[in-house]
C-alpha cells in the first residue's frame, strides 16, 4: 500500500451519493468536513483499529507525513471514543481497518 493510498483513504467520508453517483475526492473531503462541522482552525485526532500488522507498520512509519497531510494532531491505535465526529470501517487489500475523527 502506498502512502498516497493511505492518506486518501483517511480523508474519505463516503464512497457513493445516491443522487449523483460516485463522489469525487474533493466532494468526499467537503462532505467529511461538513459532516464533522470542522473549520480551518480545528484540529482532529485520527483513531484507528486493525489487526493487520502491515497496516499498523505503514501508519507508524508515515505518521508524521499523515499528520501533516490530514491536519491531524495525532494518529492513535486505540478504541474509538464516544465523542468521535465520524467513523468508518473500510477494507484495504482484504484487510479491515476502522478509522475515526475526534475534534480537539
How would you explain this protein's 3D organization?
Helix content is 37%, strand content 30%. The protein is an alpha+beta fold. The chain has one domain (3-103). Strands 4-3-6-5 form a four-stranded mixed sheet, with helices on one face. Strands 1-2 form a two-stranded antiparallel sheet. β5 and β6 (95-103) form a beta hairpin. The longest helix has 12 residues, at 25-36. The protein is globular and about 35 Å long. The termini are far apart. The mean pLDDT is 76.
Short description:
This protein has helices at about 5-10, 25-35, 55-60, 65-70; strands at about 15, 20, 45-50, 70-75, 85-90, 95-104.
Uncertain residue segments: none
Strand coverage percent: 25-35%
Instruction: Kindly name the structural category.
Output: alpha+beta
The residue fraction in helices comes out at 25-40%
In what order do the strands lie side by side in the largest sheet? Answer: 4-3-6-5
Number of strands: 6
Spell the H/E element sequence.
HEEHEHHEEE
**Average of pLDDT:** 76
Major sheet: size, sense and barrel closure? 4 strands, mixed
Shape: globular
- The span between the termini is 29 Å
Tally of DSSP helical segments: 4
Q: How many discrete domains?
A: 1
Q: Radius of gyration from the CA trace? A: 13 Å
